[in-house]
Amino acid sequence: MADEVYQDNVYAEGSQFHSFKKVLMEMGPPYSTQQELASFHSISKGYMGECGLRGGYVEVVNMDPAVQQQMQKMMSVRLCPPLPGQAVLDMVVSPPEPSDPSFTQFQAEKQAVLADLAAKAKLTEKVFNAVPGIRCNPVQGAMYSFPRIELPPRAIQRAKELGLAPDMFFCLRLLEETGICVVPGSGFGQREGTYHFRMTILPAAEKLRPLLEKLSQFHAKFTREYS
């Protein structure tokens, strides 16, 4: 099952999206003829970001016919997505062609959205990497950063006393004291003895920089408190 909803959000220089289906076909038999694949895409992500409209699709390749029949049956008895979501999905999979009147405007708006996200990805990396105790790898794509944070031993001990993962303890304190909501890295799996959090790069640039600085200041305060 391939989650490919961020296929347009690639920011790293020299990088590009490679679909699972493309790679599968390039591998040739027996993979291209036998390996089952379900690829997902959505209008709620990517450059569209129409989170309220809700529309998406799944393409299946090499699925067992009997299983695909049951999937089709299950889909047929469920309610269909809202009409606006279906309309936007049609536009996503069939964007304007160069000969269409709207092509120039569509391309300009799409590139503006992606350029803005790329700039915020670089801003996030730059601000975090200037802070002692926080390290952030380049945000190569999608809409999230995943910084690694250093936590003092006393903070780790306090988290254990409360029955919390150390990065969960940090994230809860961050939320309580600043109103900033991030997701602890322990929910995604991480190397033993390391701590992270995940945060989005979606806020407008004029809001994102103060948010990053506020978060960095909290980390410094938290570190002093438990040192």
From TrEMBL:
Keyword Nucleotidyltransferase: no
Co-factor(s): pyridoxal 5'-phosphate
Pathway(s) the chain acts in: Amino-acid degradation; L-alanine degradation via transaminase pathway; pyruvate from L-alanine: step 1/1
Keywords assigned: Aminotransferase, Pyridoxal phosphate, Transferase
Enzyme Commission number, as recorded: 2.6.1.2
Gene3D superfamilies recorded: Aspartate Aminotransferase, domain 1
Leading EC class: transferase
Residue span(s) of domain Aminotransferase class I/classII large: 1-215
Protein origin, superkingdom: Eukaryota
Record GO terms (molecular function): L-alanine:2-oxoglutarate aminotransferase activity; pyridoxal phosphate binding
The keyword Membrane is annotated on this UniProt entry: no
Subunit architecture: Homodimer.
UniProt name for this protein: alanine transaminase
